[in-house]
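Methods: holo model generation. Sequences were used as deposited, without trimming of termini or removal of tags, and paired with ligand SMILES retrieved from the corresponding compound records. Each pair was processed once, and we did not select among multiple samples. The sequence and NAP SMILES for this entry were:
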Amino acid sequence: MTAARPVRPGDVISFNRLRSREHPRGTYGMSRRIVVAGGAGHIGRRLAAVLLDRGDDVIVLSRHPERATRSGPIPGRLERWSTDDPSGLARILDGADAVVGVTGVPVGPLPWTRRRRTMIRASRLVPTRAIVDAIRLLPPARRPRVLVSVSGTDGYEGQDQLAATEATPTGHGFLADLGRDWEAAAGNAEDLGVRVAITRIGYVLSPDATTMRLFALPFRLGLGGPLGSGRQWFSWVHIEDVLGLLMLAIDDPRHRGPINAVSPEPARAADVAAAIGAALHRPSWLPMPAALIRLIMRESSILALGSRRIVPAGALALGYRFRWTDLRAAMADVLRPGDQRVRASRSVR
Ligand SMILES: NC(=O)c1ccc[n+]([C@@H]2O[C@H](COP(=O)([O-])OP(=O)(O)OC[C@H]3O[C@@H](n4cnc5c(N)ncnc54)[C@H](OP(=O)(O)O)[C@@H]3O)[C@@H](O)[C@H]2O)c1
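and the model returned the structure below.
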């Protein structure tokens, strides 16, 4: 049997390429067993679908499988897991080729009360530690070759002058500190002989993301406009490229450590507003005052008003070619009215 072909520099890795239309099942040779923790969530479910499409054997881990299937069928084999049971998890990971961690309750838009902060941290750190503990229980030859862990881009908040790359030191704050701790927790798997690839995901443009719908709502009502001054940078990324970059993390042995999953063209908030307005054919000139956003979101208003100017230097160096680099085109794609593809993605197998 031939080994699955890893992604190579120059490969066009896009969601479309990974869908069965262009790369039917078996294109990648031997099927690999890939475990997706949090695979019933927004990103995980879509990742599981494209992995399955290319012929991988996908195991989706959920704490509540019954609840997970209520929002639509889950691509792959759904398994219950508990972060309190490293031995049970080790049995699932035994002999797997890759494990991907995409867990975490949403960070916005609700204010970060003490309770929410605890949940936000725990839902990322506890599962990641559980995965590493489970890997430790396995003999080296039975361990996954790679642990892919997602992370955020909040450590770059405040970047305005020069666009941040993976080499830019990250700052401090609730989410920045969480990102650092989360990546460190995943990084412990390196000591166990497992390659660790971190995908730092920016603001995801996706047809069925809750934040996207919230963002678009005032525009649909004819009341849309930039958040605050509109001068802050937004490092956006289309969901198809998030999936492409997660596949890169799984496949490419050169991918170690963090990679920024953001489009090569960050935009200012005013341009984001204009792109939403253009996509929906609605006005986009009515700014939402920063004071009002702060009043509603409190400290979490940094998600809307903070500035993140980030480029995907690492992904480009590995030869990843982005499918979506034009903000207006990407926004028009995800906000398409009566989108057939959204329905299709909601009912993946
Ligand atoms: N979507 C974005 O725009 C974006 C951008 C940057 C970073 N990210 C990060 O990517 C990750 C996934 O995002 P998403 O949008 O796919 O989130 P999502 O739809 O809310 O899914 C997250 C999954 O995490 C699992 N989970 C939650 N709390 C958990 C806990 N305490 N222990 C174990 N599993 C837990 C849940 O699975 P079960 O309930 O089925 O167990 C849930 O399905 C998050 O960490 C998020 O911060 C997302």
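The chain has one domain: 15-346.
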